[in-house]
């Protein structure tokens, strides 16, 4: 990966922006993005057009094309997102977040390398709970509107398999789904 020594000039309205759910955040060469509020996912596609989620990122995380060699690369908002762009001269102030990005990427790689789909989905739910959940009486509410397809894309399986496993997890008391797309992970896990 090569970096240009030329620093792009960011206009005042580009330094901090708000995006809506499902917006695709514009990428700028040699510029990172710090999430101030909300959740995004990074993703790519295979030659056949199959989406593959690369990660989920929230408050304090940094994302951007300079952190990835994957093409195509896209940042999609899963909620309302407030973010600020960070040009190269300011990257030194984002080193902690860049290190967390690397650690999270390796943790997600470990999850998708689990032998069984059952284990991958359960580990992914536990990871999402650690990163994004809030405590409720029944356990940990993963307050993200993730579809079964989006969960399938991150763990490398089909939507049908995710639906079947989530139903199984619910029967076993591992999760509770009070509303569509919301999951409460039982705190006993």
Describe the structure in your own words.
The protein has 189 residues and is an alpha+beta fold. The protein folds into 2 domains: 12-109, Jelly Rolls, CATH 2.60.120; 115-186, Winged helix-like DNA-binding domain superfamily/Winged helix DNA-binding domain (Arc Repressor Mutant, subunit A, Orthogonal Bundle), CATH 1.10.10. The protein has 5 helices and 11 strands. It is globular and about 50 Å long. The termini are far apart.
Per-chain topology:
Layout (H helix, E strand, L loop, with lengths): L11 H4 E4 L11 E7 L2 E6 L5 E7 L4 E2 L10 E4 L3 E7 L7 H18 L4 H16 L1 E3 L2 E4 L5 H8 L3 H13 L3 E2 L6 E4 L3
Antiparallel strand pairs: 1-7, 2-5, 2-7, 3-4, 3-6, 8-9, 9-11, 10-11
Helix pairs in contact: 3-4, 4-5
Mean pLDDT: 89
Number of domains: 2
In sequence order, what are the helices and strands, one letter per element? HEEEEEEEHHEEHHEE
CATH architectural type of the largest domain: Sandwich
* Strand arrangement across the biggest beta sheet: 1-7-2-5
CATH topology of the largest domain: Jelly Rolls
Give the biggest beta sheet: 4 strands, antiparallel
Q: Determine the N-to-C terminus distance.
A: 41 Å
**Based on CA inertia axes, which overall geometry fits?**
globular
Question: What do we call the CATH homologous superfamily of the largest domain?
Answer: Jelly Rolls
Number of strands: 11
Strand percentage lies at 25-35%
What's this model, at a glance?
This protein is an alpha+beta fold and 189 residues long.
């Amino acid at each position: 990966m090569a970096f240009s020594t030329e620093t792009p000039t960011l206009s005042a309205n580009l330094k901090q922006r708000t995006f809506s759910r499902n917006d695709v955040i514009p990428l700028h060469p040699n510029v990172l993005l710090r999430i101030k509020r909300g959740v995004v996912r990074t993703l790519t596609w295979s030659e056949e057009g199959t989406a593959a989620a690369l990660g989920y990122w929230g408050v304090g995380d940094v994302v951007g094309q300079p952190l990835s060699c994957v093409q195509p690369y896209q940042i999609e908002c899963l909620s309302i997102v407030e973010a600020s762009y960070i040009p190269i001269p300011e990257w030194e102030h984002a080193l902690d977040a860049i290190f967390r990005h690397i650690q999270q990427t390796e943790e997600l790689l470990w999850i998708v390398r689990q032998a069984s789909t059952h284990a991958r989905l359960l580990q992914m739910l536990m990871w999402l709970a650690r990163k994004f959940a809030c405590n409720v009486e029944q356990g940990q509410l993963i307050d993200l509107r993730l579809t079964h397809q989006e969960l399938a894309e991150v763990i490398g399986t089909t939507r049908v398999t995710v639906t079947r496993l989530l139903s199984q997890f619910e029967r076993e008391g591992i999760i509770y789904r009070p509303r569509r797309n919301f999951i409460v992970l039982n705190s006993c896990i």
